[in-house]
Hints:
Layout: H1 2-23, E1 39-46, E2 54-55, H2 74-78, E3 84-85, E4 96-106, H3 108-119, E5 122-128, E6 131-136, E7 138-141, E8 151-155, E9 157-165, E10 168-176, E11 181-183, E12 190-202, H4 212-216, H5 224-260, H6 264-269, H7 289-314, H8 325-336, H9 338-351, H10 357-386, H11 394-421, H12 448-475, H13 483-510, H14 517-521, H15 523-529, H16 543-555, H17 558-561, H18 564-567, H19 575-585, H20 596-615, H21 622-625, H22 635-651, H23 656-667, H24 673-689, H25 691-697
Parallel strand pairs: 9-12
Antiparallel strand pairs: 1-2, 1-3, 1-5, 4-12, 5-6, 7-8, 8-11, 9-10
Helix pairs in contact: 1-8, 5-12, 5-13, 7-8, 7-9, 7-10, 8-11, 9-10, 9-11, 10-11, 12-13, 12-15, 19-20, 23-24
Protein name: Transmembrane 9 superfamily member
Signal peptide: 1-25
Main location: membrane
Amino acid sequence: MENSMAAAVVIALLVLFGTDQGTFGASDHRYKEGETVPLYANKVGPFHNPSETYRYFDLPFCSPDNVKDKTEALGEVLNGDRLVSAPYKLDFRSEKDSEVVCKKELSKEQVALFRSAVMKDYYFQMYYDDLPIWGFIGKVDKENRDPSDYKYYLYRHINFDIFYNKDRVIEINVRTDPHAVVDLTKDKEVDVEFLYTVKWKETNIPFDKRMDKYSQSSSLPHHLEIHWFSIINSCVTVLLLTGFLATILMRVLKNDFVKYAHDEESAEDQEETGWKYIHGDVFRYPKYKSLFAASLGSGTQLFTLTIFIFILALVGVFYPYNRGALFTALVVIYALTSGIAGYTATSFYCQLEGTNWVRNLLFTGCLFCGPLFLMFCFLNTVAIAYNATAALPFGTIVVIVLIWTLVTSPLLVLGGIAGKNSKAEFQAPCRTTKYPREIPPLPWYRGTVPQMAMAGFLPFSAIYIELYYIFASVWGHRIYTIYSILFIVFIILLIVTAFITVALTYFQLAAEDHEWWWSYFSPLLKSITSRGDVDHLMIEEDLEAREYFIAELESRFFFLAADAQSTLRGWRPSYRNVLLSVRKKLNIRCSSKLSTEDLEVEIFLHLLQDYSSDELGTFSSSNDQGSLELGLSQKKVHTLDAMRELRSILLKGGGMYTLAKIYQLVARRLSGKVFIEAANYQIKKEFIKKIRITRTYRLPTKAD
């Protein structure tokens, strides 16, 4: 399923961007002398805030007679481009000198609007034959230090220097005449005559190299040594982390394996600690498994999306100022890879024995798109309020909704169906206990905040240098073009993240904390999903199951469980570990790998054998005392009946003498105040309940 989905994505991207490259290829950029070359005005905005942009004609510039909007692709609209026909006529190889664009009388409101734009260092952006050009609309004279004495000037003369190679446009530069300005300092009407000059020059630069200028002059330093230093720093971090983890983990695991690699009897006598102590709880299903599976599916989809984006970047699709190519790729790839999310989430959810896979699909589809949609609604509302170009038109919103409805959702459902039908049963290497073990309290340095700091610091240290350039590209006018180095750093980031995840997960298991599923994503998510001050032993169990569990504790081996209500409070070992402790203290020769029921049988048989060898002779006088009417003369039959009677009394929670015998054999040998107090309590309670049975059977005491 995933392979076919990936192949479909590759084919779609090749068709999409293959068509895109043909549209903007060399064959579409040949002109004859005097032929009109398209010039589009895009947007204006403050230089220090590239995210704040407005339409070009929101400022009162000269406009052509017929303002035509350029038909834009989805990515261009998402990028905030709003291209319209510009008022300048730049015909191929046609020079002009101080050509008048228009004469215009600016009102006080228009003067104030221009002055505010000049005060904020507004710039304009245009595209000439798909080549970007920029220029400032004015300047501020700050000769006087007092801001009230500043003077504001509007440029009214623009010079275009265009370079060509045969019949193709290669380069264009814009210069503003600093002497041809209009004073906008005062609130008064101003007459302005806008001019422009066009100069053509020949160059030998080939057409396929004309975008190299923007790759090299994208305001980023060309010193690749900085980027290589980043890679070397990241590699050193990986090596140190690898060596550290390999040394620590292998030493610890080696000791553990040596400890448990002795003969069976020696291994059984050792106390289970650390990760082996909770082997029966490690594979317990996580809480909120539907949300967990949805997170895994969405993460897999986003990881696949990132890989495809890197592939397109490395093959040269995202060349500088290829308007909207990145946004188009993001939308298309996300829509086509939704099947991967559905397949991964549903298959994993079904492995966790989930039943409501339809709800899981809804979680998967909304987990990423839901918060993204809410954020978009807020930001788009703000953009509409400020009339910014970041506000998406209604038609674009409809297109995105149709893509999500007709492409993303069906592929998500198909992937979910495929994942449900192809699920494999989850095979844990060991049996999971029925009830979860209580997690012991951890020191502060193993809490959520220290784990978050450790889990985030090392991956951040591996990529922080590249992050500077990425943020400079996202929040500034700079362009990131070194995708090969970024891909190497991304691979290093994955390695560091994997190592730190393995280390933190092992340390968590070594601390006997078996709730590792959510911390595998993030320690913060674990702290959110964990419940504080709750009874971990009975978590996710309803009241009826709790009462049933307590009743089981009191009815099965009650002399060890004793007061179940108080035993469940605070730290207490599980019922199985109690049996293992009894087996060890009584030196019973049986394997510790037996099931709980088999352990009970072995201990019962041992107690019966011990009773028959030590106290069986006392039953010979039971006929005289009338406590047990066996009515048999042969010793063999007498012995079998006595053992059968004792077994019946023992399994049913028999008389006072049986309780006293168990107390002597078990409670006296067990170390720990808890069990002695529990046994004392249970004997006192059973003494009152069984007094009539004792009088009836008249079992002999030790004194007899």
